[in-house]
């Protein structure tokens, strides 16, 4: 089989494509992402939003220089996608809600995966992961259905995640040194304020 030079860019784009969450609506890159992470990063993911940060950095060995601000753009938190581009995608859940998820695995890579609630200010998992695949995630050409269509239950979050942008449900997949993340912005209701008990008085 012969490949022309003209065909190579398209082939490279195909090879660098791997996976993302399709349902519920996950974060996408837009102008706010470009302002924080630079136009090179924004364009990279708008061309192929299933790619991964290691590929972005490998494609730019001199660094991301056109507006990239590491303090505002963490390439390993939701791939750097900014909440400001995704305010219309915020889901409203409550503890105990079951969230059905669908993942598109475009090119499988054997690895580890989980789904967790992540505090976006600290990039830390809130509580324990909601679902974990310890190994053999996406290890075959046609991954098992429970790796691409599954459900998670929103846990009690101890007063966190009441403000849009504060938390995401993050699908995380690490395979062959490649990191994939998709983030679903969501909120849960704030706890109702408790009414203090009124102690009765004994008449004299």
Mean pLDDT: 89
**Assembly context of the chains:** single chain
Return the domain count.
1
What fraction of residues sit in β-strands?
Answer: 25-35%
User: Which sheet architecture does the biggest sheet show?
Assistant: 6 strands, mixed
Number of strands: 9
Q: Structural class of the helix and strand makeup?
A: alpha+beta
Note the run of SSEs as H and E: HEHHHEEEEEHEEE
Number of helices: 5
Please name the CATH architecture: Distorted Sandwich
Give the % helix.
Answer: 10-25%
The shape is globular
Can you offer a commentary on this structure?
With about 200 residues, the chain is an alpha+beta fold. The chain has a single domain, classed as Coagulation Factor XIII, Chain A, domain 1, CATH 2.70.50. The chain is about 15% helix and about 30% strand. It has helices at about 10-15, 30-35, 40-45, 55-60, 145-150, and strands at about 20-25, 90, 100-105, 110-120, 125, 130-135, 150-155, 165-175, 180-185. The strands form two sheets. Strands 2, 4, 5, 6, 8 and 9 form a six-stranded mixed sheet that branches. Helix 2 packs across helix 3 (about 40-45).
SSE topology sketch:
Elements: H1 8-15, E1 19-23, H2 31-37, H3 39-47, H4 53-59, E2 91-92, E3 98-105, E4 111-119, E5 124-125, E6 131-137, H5 145-148, E7 149-153, E8 167-175, E9 178-187
Parallel strand pairs: 2-9
Antiparallel strand pairs: 1-3, 3-7, 4-5, 4-6, 4-8, 8-9
